[in-house]
Structure formats: structure tokens, C-alpha cells
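Bench notes, afternoon.
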Amino acid sequence: MYLCHICGNDISPADSKCPYCGNSQDDQKQDDFSRKEFSQKTVNLEQGLPTVDTALLRLQREIETAKMEKVRLLTVIHGYGSTGKGGAIRRECRKTLEYLCQKGVIVSFIPGEEFHRRHGRTKQLVSRFPVLATHSHLGKQNKGITVVVLF
């Protein structure tokens, strides 16, 4: 069995297309990346009550590490903030992710409040990675997280 390089589902070596996402597999079957398990990782940026600068440095380090480990999705816990209006770490984290997306460092990201089945980008992401249907934050509209697509 191989893992589809797009959605991470098991596919037969005889299949030329993934039965889940429909992507062609011929070029990828010999690629080591396609044999690795679909992986996702959670990073808690608010652990230890860091400053905004420290949290942003940690975010960038975690993205670099996750990419080296071939992690495809990163769930970033940045918190919502204690004021009820959204905290500085959350705001600056999302600005940084927007910048990294524009620079091509990450593919995209979905704020937790948009991470539900009715949202267009989330629908596309769940279609691409069906394993996300079981993600613990899916549908909870959690403003304190962001899902980052790395590959």
C-alpha cells in the first residue's frame, strides 16, 4: 500500500489515481514522500505565557521544523486573548501567516472560526485531506487556533 501524496489515504500500488481525491499517482509511487504517513502536528504558542515576539519566533521555528519533518498540516494554538477582543499573539500570528503565505513559505491557513464544514476553504481542505473530518477542532469555531497547510 502507498499513501496518496495529496490526501494521505491508503491506495493500492495498482491504482493510477487516488480513489479519494482523484489525483494521479503514477509519478509519485517511487517518491519517498508518498510513502510517509500523512502527518499533522499541533503547536501551542501560548504555553508558558510568552511575549508576542517570542511566540512569533516559535511559530516560525515550528513551521521550519514541521516542513523538515514533512508535516502537512499544523494546528497552531495561539489563544484568543483575555480581553474578549482577540489577543496580540493571535493577531500577530495571523499577520505573520499571511506574510508567509504570500512569500510561498506555507500554502495557506484557515482561522479556527472558519474551520467548519460550511466554509469553502475548509471544504476544499477536507476534500484534499479526508482525515481532517476527524480533526478535534473541526466545526468548533475556535478563534484561538489556526490550521496551517504546509504542503
